[in-house]
Amino acid sequence: MSIVTVAISSILVAASAWKNEDFGEAAVFLQLGSKLQLDVITKSNKCTGNLMSGVYMDVKDNDKKILNVSSQYDVTITPPAPDSLYYEESVGTGWAVKPSDGKGVSYDCKIEDINFNVANKPDPPDSLVTAWVFNSKIADINFLNDCISGAKDSESCGVAASWAVEHQAIFKDEKLFVVGFGDGGSDFGNVWVKISGLDGP
User: Fold this and answer.
1) 97 pLDDT above the threshold of 60
2) N or C: which end of the chain has fewer CB within 10 A?
3) Burial code of 34-70, b = ≥16 C-beta within 10 A, e = fewer?
4) Nearest in space to 79 (alpha carbons), one of 199, 183, 90
5) How many angstroms separate the CA atoms of 116 and 66, rounded?
6) What average pLDDT does the segment 64-75 reach?
7) d(Cα 185, Cα 181) in Å, to the nearest integer?
8) Alpha carbons 66 and 20: distance in angstroms, whole number
9) Are strands 54-58 and 25-26 parallel, antiparallel or unpaired?
10) In contact, 163 and 30? CB cutoff 8 Å
């Protein structure tokens, strides 16, 4: 894959992705910060619905969400069912971000204008957000490094620092399959980590 520099409103969004071959899991997180070089993911290679879909750990809100991307690249986001092992009260019930609440997935694996301000969803962001999918190493994600070092406060980071410390020791130089969420590149949005496929427990 080619190496490109991605610049959006002078703030770079970097994300990375990796498939855990032992457990069928993937990691997902967002980078907003200094200029980075990233491997591009497109629909001709790793930008596929089955790789993006799954149960995600939200490292800021400290709960889980379900991301489902169809073979036609329609995007749906919901909370786990109340009887699921992944359910926590903070995520709420009875809400859904539907394909009509966003623009789907572009060829270069960007999901624009996602509207999380839907009925019954607790604490939605007050603006539309955009997601990007890239390949990167945990050590190359400045946002995670800033959370570890304390350069960013705990309110901005959630549990990102503790997650990054634990998983950087595990993954080391592995490139991870990653989705980054923001509001179009002008502000930090959130960090989600894929912990299971849709057919998980």
Assistant:
1) yes
2) C
3) eebebbbbeeeebbbbebbbbbbbbbbbebbbbbbbe
4) 90
5) 13
6) 92
7) 9
8) 18
9) unpaired
10) no
DSSP string over 156-195: HHTTHHHHHHHHHHHHTT-EEEEEEEESSSSSEEE-EEEE
As a whole number of angstroms, the distance between CA 94 and CA 82 comes to 10
Nearest to 180 by CA among 127, 118, 112, 124: 112
Instruction: Decide if 144 contacts 167 (C-beta within 8 A).
Output: no
* Global pTM exceeds 0.85: no
Contacts of 97 (CB under 8 A, 6+ apart): 75, 76, 77, 78, 114, 115, 116, 118, 121
Distance, CA of 158 to CA of 145 (rounded, Å): 13
Token pair 């200094």 is at which residue?
Answer: 34
Does 7 have pLDDT greater than 50?
no
* Whole-number Å distance between alpha carbons of 41 and 26: 15
Torsion angle, CA of 12/44/64/117, rounded to 10 degrees? 70
